[in-house]
Amino acid sequence: MQSEELLGNLSSDENGAPKKEKKSPLVSLEKDLTFYADSIREVAVEIMMEGISLNPIFIAHQHEVSIGEIILNRAELNTEWTIQASTLEEFIQKGIIHPDKKEQFLKTYKKPENYMCVFVVVPEGANFVYYPYPKGK
Fold first, then answer.
1. pLDDT of residue 15
2. What average pLDDT does the structure give for the chain?
3. Which of 14, 55, 104, 132 has the fewest CB atoms within 10 Å of its CB?
4. Which domain holds residue 99?
């Protein structure tokens, strides 16, 4: 994914005319993650407390993905992003994270009590984002 697609492109087109600013998908994602924060935190705690995994991962998408379980459906909630819950173990099992890269991933994995680990999937690709839970909750 090009940075212009993520952040909006303010440059000119091939004719030299200013391009219309594209709205970044990250703007709507941030809005939805803030809205979903309490529910996501609840699921993360449940995943850890039930011993399923110490490393919950949430998948944010606007299409269909075949990993994790839907916990927040954009169609039902009138939002722009669907969130699915998964784990590091499932990401390794499905080959998204290579087993040899597990330790490297864990070094960058932020405290799940403070941050949601979100695997953001867009048509151009996917990447991990750590989004902090709102303070005072």
1. 52
2. 85
3. 14
4. 23-132
